[in-house]
Amino acid sequence: MHRVTSISTLGPHAQRFVERHAVACVAAVFPRSCYLEAHGDFLCIGEESIGRGPLNALLSGAGWTRLSESLPPVETRAHIARGTLHISSIALDATRAEPWRPASWPSARRAESVACALRRLQRFAAEQAPVDGLARVVLGTAGDRPSALDRAALPRVRRLRAWLTGDAPPSVDLLGLGPGLTPSGDDVLGGMLVALHAVGQAGMAAELYAALAGAAPTATSPISAAFLRAAAEGLGCEALHAAIAAVLEGWAEAVSDRAEALGRIGHTSGWDALAGAMLVLQAFGSTQRQPAGVAWAQICE
What we know:
The protein is an alpha/beta fold.
C-alpha cells in the first residue's frame, strides 16, 4: 500500500508537470531533493528548506524524511494520476498544495534610492561572495590572482555587458561553464533573464533565451536547461526575486539580508544568479519606465 504524503507548495512549472505528464522517471537524487523527468520537463521534489521556486514541489520536514528513507534509485518509473505522484511505495498528494508564484515586480522608488541599494549590494557581494563560482569575476572583485575559471569567464562576461548596452549580439558562451548540476555560467544567465523581466526588458530576455535555447542541448545539462526555461519567463527562486525587489524598492537596509539568504542556495548558485541580476541592474535603469539602453552607471555617477 502506498504511504501518502502531502506536497505543501507547488511552483508554476511543478504544477504544469503534474498536470501534463502521466509517467516520469527519477532523474537525480540529492540529500535534500530529487528530480523527476518526463519528456525534457523536470520536477524538483524537496524539503521546504530548499525554498520556493518554479520547479519545486515542497514537502514538510517530516514528509521529506519519510520520502528520503525509501527513495528509489535513479531511473525508477513514477506514475501521476489525479494530482498524485506514485513513486515505488510512495504517494505524493499534490491536490491540496499551495500554488506559489512570485509577486509582481515593484514599481521602483527614486533613482537615488535604488542606486544606494545597488551600491550597498555591490559592497556586500564584494565581501561575502565565494571565491569559487563566478560572482566575483562578474562583479569585478576577483582579485589579482584569477582562477582558471575566472580567466575563462572574464571575456564572456565582457561580451554580455556589450550586449546589454547594445554594442554586440547576445552572447551565450557562459552556458555550461563551471561545475555542478547547474553550472555557474548558467546561474549567471538565469539571474540575468529574471532581472531583465524585473526592469521591463522582456524583449531582451526573449532574445537572450532564443540564443540559449539553441545552444543548450549540447552545452549544458537538461536540468539546468529546465531552470533556464523558467527564468526566460521571469521565474526564479523566491530568494532571487526578493533580492531584486529590494533593489528596485530602494530598500538599502534589506539588500544584505536578502543577498545572504540567496547565497545559501546551492554551493555557489545563489551568488552566481545574484551576480547575473546585478549585471542587468547595473546596465539598465531601475524602473520599468527606464528607456532601454540607458546605462545605470549614468544614474550612479
